[in-house]
Write a structure and sequence with these properties.
The protein is mainly α and about 150 residues long. Helices cover about 70% and strands about 10% of the residues. The protein has a two-stranded antiparallel sheet. The longest helix is centred in the first third of the chain and has 23 residues, at about 5-25. The radius of gyration is 18 Å and the shape is globular.
Length: about 150
């Protein structure tokens, strides 16, 4: 069975992202690594989803949108968020525009851990970016932006 080169390319991309994440963790403070590694994979994905979603909605995200992004039910998202609120990674506040709804955002602790790891990952990413010409980098950035826009409209 022959493998499609594009499949292999995406597998390599996923492996690169995983390696960058590992390197970010490896050079981060042990306290931060222990906290992040104490989260389940689903909790880590929730942390990253909330961070990503709050880029476009700084007041926080609603539970329904988070559940849709995570491809889980709203009740499952509620339990997941509550466990992360109790551990200090997320905050849940009443939506100022709709008092029946809540806004979920990253806590100061969640931001601190994410920012440390992201800084370390950024160092590794910049090393890889230095391997590309400016034209290659522009093409790469445009392709990734197009993929992102398709997957996260």
């Amino acid at each position: 069975m022959s493998k499609d080169p594009i499949d292999e390319t995406f597998i390599m991309l996923f492996e690169i992202v995983d390696k960058l994440s590992q390197k970010g963790l490896a050079t981060s403070a042990k306290k931060n690594v222990a906290l992040l590694e104490s989260l389940s994979v689903r909790q880590q994905k929730t942390l990253y989803a909330v961070i990503s979603m709050t880029k476009f909605n700084p007041t926080g995200v609603n539970l329904k949108d988070l559940a849709a992004r995570m491809n889980i039910t709203v009740p499952a998202a509620s339990v997941l968020v509550e466990s992360m609120v109790q551990r200090g990674f997320l905050e849940r506040e009443i939506n100022p525009n709709d008092r029946r709804a809540v806004c979920i955002s990253i806590s100061a602790t969640g931001h601190q851990i994410f920012n440390v790891i992201r800084q370390e990952m950024s160092i590794q990413v910049n090393k890889l970016a230095d391997l590309m010409s400016s034209e290659e980098r522009t093409v790469f950035e445009n392709v990734i932006a197009r993929f992102y826009k398709e997957l996260f409209p």
